Fold this sequence. Notes:
The protein is an all-alpha fold.
Amino acid sequence: TTLVENYFNSCKDAHSSLRHFLIEVYSCGSNLSICNNIRDINDNHLIEFAYKLRDGIPVTAPVFEGPKDEQIVKLFELAGLDNSGQVVLYDGCSGEKFDRKVTVGYMYMLKLHHLVDGKIHARSVGPYSLVTQQPLGGKSHFGGQRFGEMECWALQ
């Protein structure tokens, strides 16, 4: 029976160390209710929860409020990574190390909707304002840019 008890105690130690590690990871964030939930769940749910985290820990951040540098550094330390977040890369052809460490990760690029094709506008003749006799303003009114007295003097 001592062998079974030792196995049971080692499992208990493994569960408690896993629970402690997850609490330490989630205490980096601002939502501490997750830590309370991790303390309260039973061992089977704890293992299931840890299994779902095997590909990474989902993190949410409010808009325009990223995580603090200290929180990121603490997560790097818990993951056993360098505090800079950079890793050593090797040349795929020669197998040599690069001179410096490199930041690796995802970067999202979006297409800008304000393209030149939608902005360009030209006018030779068109409508004028009745009061000032200057060209109307704006592309939608087929307007133009007034070439006034100061502009004429600037060209001379």
